[in-house]
Amino acid sequence: MSLVSVTDLGVRMGGRAVFSDVSFEIGAGEVVGLIGPNGAGKTTLMRALLGLLPFEGQSTLAALPAAERARLAAWMPQSREIAWPVSVETVVMLGRVPHLGTLQRPGEEDRARVAAALERMELAEMRDRPATQLSGGEQARVLIARALAQDTPLLIADEPIAGLDPAHQISTMQSFAALADVGKSVLVSMHDLGLAVRHCTRLVLLGEGRMIADGPPGEVLTPERLARVFGISAWYKVTEEGPVYQPLEVLR
C-alpha cells in the first residue's frame, strides 16, 4: 500500500526550476534515502510533498487536511534549534499533539510512546534536563525522538544525522530500519552515501533538475552516475555484514 505518492512534482523559485517531473511512491516497510549534491532540491522536495510550499504536479500527502497529514507523517526539518528552556521530555511529548483532542491531556499511551522514544535515542537519563542546555547533537536526538513519539506510518527527516557523532549516526539509521521492520516507512535525506547504501532499502537520486534514479542502492549508485552527478569515484563491496561503500576521490 502506498503511503505517499508524488506525480510530476516540480518547484520553481525566483523564476528558476529547482526540479521538475519527479514521480515516486513510498510503500510500507521502506527506508528511502533521498540523495543528491548540494542544491539538487532535496529539502525543497520534502517540503513540497508535505504541502509546505507551492509546487506543480501532485502529492497525495499535501492534498490531505493538516490534521490528517500530521497523523500520517511526522516531519523533522533540517533546523535543530530548540528555543524554549523546557525539559527534554516536554519537547518529545509535543510529538503526541496530533493524537490529542482540544485541551486533552496526555494519557498512559502517550507517556509510553514518549518513554520508548527517549529510550530509543538514549535520552532517558536526560528527560528532566532543559533542552536548551544540551549540545547541538543532543538536541538533534531530542527532535528525532519527538518525531518517533508521533508514531506515524511515515517519518520524513531532512538530514537527521548531520552533526551527530558516528555512533549516533549509525544508531539513528538502525532506528529507522527498526521502523521499517514493523511496517512503517522513512524518507530521509542524507549526504553520507556509505550509510545510505548500508541502511536504506531504496535510494532516490536528485540532480540536474530532475530525478535521475530510483531503486536499490547498488543499482542507483553506479560508477557512471557517481562521476556524472557527484564528480567522485567510490569503492563498493558486499560483505557478510552488509554492503560497504567508500568514496575515494574527486574526479573534477
From TrEMBL:
Signal peptide (residue range): none
Keyword Transport: yes
UniProt cross-references to Pfam families, sorted A to Z: ABC_tran
Any one GO MF annotation of this record: ATP binding
Gene3D superfamilies reported in the protein's UniProt record: P-loop containing nucleotide triphosphate hydrolases
Record has tRNA-binding as a keyword: no
Domain of life: Bacteria
Keywords: ATP-binding, Nucleotide-binding, Translocase, Transport
Function: Part of the ABC transporter complex HmuTUV involved in hemin import. Responsible for energy coupling to the transport system.
Protein known as: ABC transporter ATP-binding protein
Organism: Aquicoccus porphyridii
